[in-house]
Amino acid sequence: MNVATVQRNSYRDRALRLLPHICARCKCEFSERKISELTVHHKDHNHENNPNDGSNWELLCTYCHDNEHEKFRLEGCYDGTSQGCEPEPPLFSPFSELDSLIDLPKKEIKGMDQHDT
Hints:
Blueprint: H1 3-8, H2 11-18, E1 38-42, E2 57-61, H3 62-74, H4 98-102
Antiparallel strand pairs: 1-2
């Protein structure tokens, strides 16, 4: 099977042939030139469930698709029915060295007022 056949039979290609090129959430319409901004969302969040009629798919723009997955990830977090809703720790902390700067003797910090309070 060649690459074109595989692409023609991909669920994205099938969804783009079956469904109107409109985001199912924000209702933005996408021309052929902007079609790459449309994504295929699996309604049941199961990427293996790809029925030929497209009943498990909807086209979403990249922004709405990200929002949909974030809602699914946080589902139950606010009513206490889900575990593991703690945010992941940040990869970078811009203030990680702040303590060491604050502990510097006042004479090392130029321009700082020397009044004791």
